[in-house]
Design brief:
The chain contains 8 helices and 10 strands. The chain is α+β, with helices and mostly antiparallel strands and about 270 residues long. It has 2 domains: about 130 residues, Roll (Nuclear Transport Factor 2, Chain: A), CATH 3.10.450.620; about 120 residues, no CATH class. The strands form 3 sheets. It has a 5-stranded mixed β-sheet with strand order 1-2-5-4-3. It has a 3-stranded antiparallel β-sheet with strand order 8-9-10. A hairpin with a 4-residue loop joins β9 and β10. α6 crosses α8. About 35% of the residues are buried. The N terminus is likely disordered.
């Protein structure tokens, strides 16, 4: 997997960064379980930003989110992957599984937690696991070394759905993800709306992100998390882009209308 060792660094940061660790985990995942999983979430967004030469916008994360399409592999990874990671580490790191969440013998969703140590490295990282049957596969695309990633359309639909509810207050980085994805990728209104449909609900008649009283609270939460997550864009820009992008989707979901296409260079649905 491609490595970017300087992302999000500061003068006090270790030589082995969290990105080095996640990249190593992704490489060993590919070497061991290729074909059994699809990468989703922030690590997939990172891949797409690297492909359009905007590594500087990659935000900090401590996990790799995966859709698995093989139930037997889910049980195996829960039991053995920490040992495989330590054996195959090019960085001479030790991966200790410190906790797990979920039932891996009848698996739908869960998380594996690791403590990673080595010379100049001490991190807690995790792998989010979600079972996805072949019949329910999302849109996927190939990435580095033909690794499979959930498409930008599927990723942004997840973020738009979350933005409709108060959950966004606890996942403020999702607004940042909407900003960066809508800045560099085009989208089909009908496709995004169909992926959101059934997940977007209104409190009374209001979508949460569109309420007139949420700006200040969301800004405070964003500013408080900016350093932790390396959110490098001012909240006002992120919020305005999110409103411009999501309003048409919510309108289409509830009222229908003509299909449109998002043009990132114009920041508009046309």
């Amino acid at each position: 997997m491609e490595r970017v060792s300087t992302l999000g660094r500061n003068d006090n940061q270790k030589n082995i960064t969290i990105y080095n660790v996640l990249d190593e985990m992704a490489r060993i995942l590919y070497d061991t379980y290729s074909g059994d999983y699809i990468i989703r979430g922030s690590y997939a967004i990172r891949n797409y930003l690297l492909n359009v030469n905007h590594a500087e916008l990659v935000r900090t994360t401590t996990d790799i989110d995966l859709y698995w399409i093989s139930r037997p592999t889910l049980t195996k990874i829960a039991n053995e992957f920490h040992e495989i990671l330590s054996e195959k580490s090019d960085l001479s790191l030790r991966y200790e599984k410190i906790a797990e969440r979920g039932r891996h013998n009848d698996f739908q969703t869960g998380r594996l937690f690791y403590h990673v140590t080595g010379e100049d490295a001490d991190y807690n990282v995790n792998i989010d696991l979600h079972y996805m049957s072949t019949a329910n596969r999302k849109e996927i695309q190939s990435g580095v070394e033909n690794t499979l990633y959930v498409s930008p359309t599927t990723i942004i639909a997840d973020k738009v759905s979350i933005s409709a509810s108060e959950v966004i207050k606890e996942r403020i980085h999702d607004l940042y993800d909407i900003y960066v994805l809508s800045n560099y990728f085009d989208f089909n209104l009908q496709k995004v709306s169909e992926l959101c449909r059934g997940r977007v609900t209104r409190i009374g008649e209001a979508i949460f992100i569109l309420r007139s009283d949420v700006y200040n609270e969301l800004k405070q939460r964003y500013d408080n998390n900016a350093k932790l997550h390396s959110l490098l864009v001012e909240f006002e820009d992120v919020f305005n882009r999110t409103i411009e992008f999501t309003t048409a989707i919510y309108t289409y979901i509830f009222n229908g209308g003509n299909n449109k296409h998002w043009q990132p260079d114009k920041s508009r649905w046309l």
